[in-house]
Structure formats: structure tokens, C-alpha cells
Amino acid sequence: MTKQQEKDILIYDKIINYITRIDEEKDAETLWMEMKPLGHQMSISAFNTRLKKLVERGIVEKKSLGYNKNFYRISTDDKPQYSGAF
Q1: Nearest to residue 15, comparing CAs of 69, 4, 39, 77?
Q2: Do 6 and 14 touch, CB atoms closer than 8 A?
């Protein structure tokens, strides 16, 4: 595994852990802004790309409410979640 892959996995882990700890669904920008003071520095674009991959893998659920307003939470499905590789 390359250093970049290791770094990416750590970032995915941080996002998953943060979303798991919060008690409510939040939009992507709010999640990103709340993670920044905790030392998780990345652009909003990079955050959205990672969040999209987590949704595609079924780790995070996306709930759409109206035009261009989406909220996210950890998936409640019983299927396997995260293998540590993207």
C-alpha cells in the first residue's frame, strides 16, 4: 500500500468516525465545517468526493430533501460496511 493510499484510508476513517458520533443527519457543508476545527483540513470538493464514495459503498446514507439539499448519516443496513480500501 502506498503512502497516499494510507493517507486516504485515514481520511475516510475520520469521516466515518465523525458521522458515527453525531446524533443527527447533517448536510455535507455542515459536516465539512464541523470537521475543520478538529484538524481535518481538506477542501469542500475533496470532502464531497469522499462522502460520495462512502454513499456509493453503502457506508453512509444520503437523504434528499428538496432541490439540492441532501443530508447524510451512517448507514443502518446490516451488510458489511467498510473494508479499509477505496
Answers
A1: 39
A2: no
Q: What is the pTM assigned to this prediction?
A: 0.83
Q: Count how many residues are written for the chain.
A: 86
User: For the chain, which residues score pLDDT lower than 70?
Assistant: 78-86
Q: Which amino acid is at 5?
A: Q
CB distance 75 to 59 below 8 Å: yes
Please tell me the predicted confidence (pLDDT) of residue 86: 57
Q: Supply 77's cell numbers.
A: 443496513
Q: Which three cell numbers stand for residue 75?
A: 448507514
**How many angstroms separate the CA atoms of 33 and 71, rounded?**
14
Helix locations, the chain, DSSP H:
3-21, 28-35, 44-56
% of the chain residues with pLDDT over 90: 64
What are all long-range contacts of 1-7, with beta carbons under 8 Å and residues at least 24 apart? 5/85
